[in-house]
Amino acid sequence: MRDRVKRIIKTCNISLTALGIIALAGYIYNLVFYERLRLPVLAFGDINPILDQMQITAAIFFILIFLFHWAAITYLVINLRFFRRESLFISVLFFLAILSMLMVMGDFALLSDIGKEYQQGWDTSGEWVILYISQALHLVFWVLLAVWMAASVRIRKQQDSQQVIVRDESIFINAQYIGIFCGLSGIAVFVLLSTALPLWALKKGIFSVSMVIILPYLLIALYWLILKLKEKGREWYDEKQYQDICRAGLVTMVSSMVIMFTIYLVQYFTATEFISITWFPFYLFLILLIFSSSTLYFAKRS
Fold first, then answer.
1. What is the pLDDT of residue 163?
2. What backbone phi and psi angles, to 5 degrees, belong to 76?
3. What are phi and psi of 237, to 5 degrees?
4. Is the pTM of this model over 0.85?
5. Residue 132 and residue 114: Cα distance in Å, rounded?
6. What is the DSSP letter of 115?
7. What span, in angstroms and rounded, lies between the C-alpha atoms of 299 and 64?
8. Radius of gyration of the chain (CA)
9. In 10 A of CB 24, how many CB atoms?
10. Which of 72, 168, 226, 240 is the 20 to 30 A CA-CA neighbour of 78?
11. Alpha-carbon 178 to chain mean position
12. What is the DSSP-derived secondary structure letter of residue 1?
């Protein structure tokens, strides 16, 4: 079994490295494409020569970059499944992989919006800022993935006898890490959105933003659920996990009520509107953060 696992991960490493090099070349090409478009678009100049020259190749690279993200997510799931120890680093990577993949689709939609606004003679400077922030996120993911792939080779060579997993405890712990990342991200985003955007803009983007942020946790939870459904005749939780979840549930209930009541009092007695129509997504990410943090804390206690 251990040799088979090693062959699977080694094959994934080689395949993902090859696809990653091609996708990285496409990422650089598309950056050049964006930069060549940006100044003419902002100045409402003629962009047709640039589009004729580069847009088909850029579209092909879009597809390759998207496929690379799917391959990377598959690779990370294999690592989650076959490595015994939980890993904060691989949890961060899984979280970033999902966000980065969704942002690839967002890049395409953003470029479409830029094109429409350019034709209408509207200012697109804000959209360009968002597009380049998205490219920075892609680059961070690429770098961290390369670091993990290099490190995982060394780990397998040093600790082969300890790496193949026989239980799903590592996935359980990694799910809590990812829940913390999703919770923190959701709270930060909706606090900023509530204070920076008008009501109509919040209503327009609140659902899509929530789904983008929480999707990594939903996927890891779904993966854990699938593994459990395959384990016929076994308890879903061992005794300690069950106790940890019960304690975390109690902490979540009490803490979330106290925090939301405090926010209610602040908004009731002052003119400050900390959260408006984003209260439910804010609450959702708050309880996800508290529950995952509490579960992780109790799980780490001996």
1. 45
2. -70, -35
3. -130, 145
4. no
5. 13
6. H
7. 40
8. 22
9. 17
10. 240
11. 9
12. -
Structure tokens, 258? 């106290």
Matching residue, tokens 């609140």: 206
Tokens found for residue 284: 């959702």
Of 287, 208, 219, nearest to 253 (Cα)?
287
DSSP string, 195-227: HHS-HHHHHHHHHHHHHHHHHHHHHHHHHHHHH
Residue 91: closest CA among 223, 224, 243, 220: 220
Helix axes 48-82, 199-230, angle to 10 degrees: 40
The helix (run of H) or strand (run of E) holding residue 289 is helix 279-300
Q: What amino acid is encoded at 176 in this protein?
A: Q
Query: What burial letters (b/e) apply to 110-123, b meaning 16+ CB within 10 Å?
Result: bbeebeeebeeeee
Do 227 and 168 contact (CB within 8 A), yes or no? yes
- Which residues in 182-197 are b (16+ Cβ under 10 Å) and which e? bbbbbbebbeebbeeb
Count of H-run helices and E-run strands, the chain = 9, 0
Closest residue by Cα to residue 79 from 65, 68, 92 = 92
Q: Could you tell me where the DSSP H helices lie in 43-87?
A: 48-82
Average pLDDT estimate for 132-136: 93
Q: What is the spatial distance between Cα 156 and Cα 164, in angstroms, rounded to a whole number?
A: 10
State the CB neighbour count (10 A cutoff) for residue 257.
Answer: 10
Average pLDDT, the chain: 83
Nearest to 247 by CA among 192, 299, 186: 299
Whole-number pLDDT of residue 63: 92
Contacts of 146 (CB under 8 A, 6+ apart): 20
Can you read off the two tokens belonging to residue 222?
């779904």
- What is the C-alpha to C-alpha distance for residues 173 and 180, in angstroms, rounded to an integer? 11
Residues 179, 206, 109, 218: is their CA dihedral positive or negative?
positive
- For 19-34, what is each residue's pLDDT tens digit? 989 999 999 999 999 9
For the chain, give the number of residues.
302
